[in-house]
Write a structure and sequence with these properties.
By secondary structure, the protein is α/β, with parallel strands linked by helices. Helix content is 48%, strand content 15%.
Length: 331
Amino acid sequence: MNQIVDIKELNERIRLESAFVDMIQMEMNKVIIGQKHLIESLLIGLLSNGHILLEGVPGLAKTLAISTMANTINAKFSRIQFTPDLLPADLIGTMIYSQKKEEFLVKKGPVFANFILADEINRAPAKVQSALLEAMQERQITIGTETYKLEEPFLVLATQNPIEQEGTYPLPEAQIDRFMLKTVITYPKKDEEQLIIRENLAQVFPTASEILKAQDILKARDIVKEVYMDEKIEKYIIDIVFATRFPCDYKLDQFRDMISFGGSPRASINLAMAAKAFAFIKRRGYVIPEDIRAIAHDVLRHRIGLTYEAEAENITSEEIISEILNTIEVP
C-alpha cells in the first residue's frame, strides 16, 4: 500500500517537474516543422546524459534542430564539419607558443561547448573520430600534459549521410556503441513540407526563445533517475537484449545465422535510462512496457551485428528488433 502512495506522490512531483518539456517542444515546434521523433530523441539524450547518432539524407533540419535546442537552454553550441583532412587538434585544441610570454599556451577547440554537432562524422579519419569519442565517454580532454573537464550538460549529436559511402570512414562497432541512440529520420509529410516552404519564404524566420539554464537540465537529470521502474520491466529489458545475443533461446531460430553479435550490457543500461527519460517526457513517474517498445529501435539498431547471410537475404536490424518485440511476452 505504501508503494502505491509513493508512486502517486512521485507521479505528481514528476508531472510538475517535467512541465518545461512541453515548453521546449513548443519552442522547437516554432522552428522545426514535423520531426516529432527527432525532437523526442534530442530530449531523451539531453535528460539521460547520452549522445545521439542521426542518420538521414541532407536537408532534414538536423543542424537546425540541435542549434534550436541549444537556444532554448542558453547553452554554448558548436558545429564541427567533419572532413577527410580534419586533425584531432582542430577538434580538441592545441598548444600554441606565445613569443610575448615565452611559453606554450592552450588554445581550446570547438569541442569545449555544451552542444556539439558533429556533421557527417563518417567523413573524418579514425583518429579524429576517436578524439571526439574520448570526449564523449570521459567528459574530459587532454591537451599536452593538462586534462580539462568538459562543461555539463555535454551532448554530441553526430550525423551521417546514408547515401554517399565513397570516401567515408565507417564508425567501428566499439565506437558506435558509445552512442545512446541511433535515430533514423525521414522526409516530412506533404502538408508539413508546405509549411516548411511558407516559413522559409516568410519575411522573418521564427526563432526559439530561451526558457532554461544549463543548471535546470542537470537538476532534471537527477529527477529522471527517480522515475520508478518495476522489476518486471527490468526483466523485460534483459529479455529483449538477451534475445539479440541468443535468439534460439527465445524461439527466434530464424535469426540463428543472421546475428553476428547482439547488444552489450551498455544496451541494457541505455534501454533503462532512455525508458525513464521517455516516461519523464510523457510526464509520468513510472515506466510502462510501451516506453521500452517506443525507444527499443533507436537504442538497439546500431548494436546488432548482421552476418553476410542476413545481408544476402536483405534482413535488417530493424526487422530483427521488431520480431523480438513481437515475440517476447510483455509484462
